[in-house]
Amino acid sequence: MEATRIIAVRHGETAWNVDARIQGQKDIGLNDTGRWQARRVGEALAGEQISAVYSSDLGRAHQTAQSIAEVAGIPVVPDEGLRERGFGMFEGKTVDEIHEHWPDHAHNWRKRIPEWEPPEGGESLLQLRERVTRTMHALASRHPGEQIVVVAHGGVLDALYRVATGQEVNSPRTWELPNGAINRLLWTPEGFTLVGWSDTQHLEHEAADENTSF
Predict the structure, then answer these.
(1) Which tens digits make up the pLDDT trace of 23-63?
(2) How far apart are CA 170 and CA 180, in angstroms?
(3) From the CB of residue 1, how many other CB atoms can be counted at a distance below 10 Å?
(4) pTM value?
(5) CB 82 within 8 A of CB 156
């Protein structure tokens, strides 16, 4: 079977990203910067041959995916399996609030305890990895020899990076997960291979792109 080429994109920025507020599976839309990032991603991928655009069904990812799909002339296909990690009672809280109110849970979170689940319906890192792996295998297997775009979230892309590089869920993170970055992988039935990560060249010329009247 021919490999499937995957372009994986993290959604654009939201107000909760700026506030260091945990979004999880809350449906938060893009802010002005996020909408600009989404447009820039679409422009950056305009020359690519893209067979399908898949997205988390949460608004911030779907909005980003729409900018890519419009340029490619194809629809966005939403998939719940691409949603951000469920963070239970952490959702809507800032990082500082979590450390203040639930220090024991915050410790488990920061230490990346594989089996720990955020209270009130959160997912463990092991559950997230299983979901992301299953979903990505299913999507990629539909497109052998083609290229697809997948728009998701920081936690999803972190899990995908670890699967592709053979790292455990609790290994220290040494890679970046910027909003609007372009990441590239290959898929075969044997698994995922990393091709390129955290390409943000298309986001580095914001000032030059703005029309300013004097």
Answers:
(1) 999 999 999 999 999 999 999 999 999 999 999 999 999 99
(2) 25
(3) 10
(4) 0.93
(5) yes
Q: Which of 13, 84, 91, 117 is catalytic?
A: 84
Residue 153 among the catalytic residues: no
| Catalytic residue of the set 11, 62, 143, 153 | 11
Residue 131 main-chain phi, psi, to 5 deg: -65, -45
Q: How far apart are CA 204 and CA 214, in angstroms?
A: 23
11 catalytic per annotation: yes
Give me the pLDDT at residue 206, please.
59
Give me the domains of the chain, ranges plus CATH numbers. 4-207 (3.40.50.1240)
Question: Which residues are CB-neighbours of 177 under 8 A, at least 6 positions away?
Answer: 10, 154, 157, 158, 198
DSSP alpha helix (H) spans, the chain: 15-18, 32-44, 59-72, 95-101, 103-110, 125-140, 154-165, 206-209
For residue 177, report the phi and psi dihedrals to the nearest 5 degrees: -135, 60
Question: For residue 160, what are its two tokens?
Answer: 């995908």
Per-residue pLDDT tens over the stretch 86-126: 999 999 999 999 999 999 999 999 999 999 999 999 999 99
- Tell me, what DSSP letter sits at residue 73? T
**Per-residue pLDDT at 87:** 98
List strands edge to edge, sheet with 76-78: 76-78, 52-55, 147-152, 4-10, 182-188, 191-199
Distance of CA 62 to the CA centre of its chain: 11
